[in-house]
């Protein structure tokens, strides 16, 4: 499951530098998450860091249009961060 930043985003700049996959960038109005790069921090942390640092509750949620299993997220992590 990739994550989604909702319109509740206040553009505080807390999430973008914390993303280990560089999946977060500024969109037209607020920050956005690239679903091709988001692994929900699998391979890096136990929980998504963007959700942990976001000061507004329920701003970063599971993207209902991009549901992925933990295995799929691990596969994405391996592609994004090949060994060596």
UniProtKB/TrEMBL annotation:
Which parts of the sequence belong to the 4Fe-4S ferredoxin-type domain? 1-29
Give this protein's Gene Ontology molecular function annotations.
4 iron, 4 sulfur cluster binding; metal ion binding
Is Ion transport tagged as a keyword?
Answer: no
Which Pfam families does the record match to this protein? Fer4_7
Keyword line: 4Fe-4S, Electron transport, Iron, Iron-sulfur, Metal-binding, Repeat, Transport
* Xref: Gene3D superfamilies: 3.30.70.20
**Iron found in the keyword field:** yes
* GO CC annotations on file: cytoplasm
What NCBIfam families would the database entry show? Answer: di_4Fe-4S_YfhL
**UniProt name for this protein:** YfhL family 4Fe-4S dicluster ferredoxin
């Amino acid at each position: 499951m990739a994550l989604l930043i909702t319109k509740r985003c206040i553009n505080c700049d807390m999430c973008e530098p914390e993303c280990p996959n560089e999946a977060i960038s500024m969109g037209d109005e607020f920050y956005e998450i690239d679903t091709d790069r988001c692994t929900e921090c699998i391979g890096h942390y136990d929980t998504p860091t963007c959700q942990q640092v976001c000061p507004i509750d329920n701003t970063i949620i599971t993207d209902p249009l991009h549901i992925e299993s933990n295995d799929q997220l691990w596969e994405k992590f391996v592609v994004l961060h090949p060994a060596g």
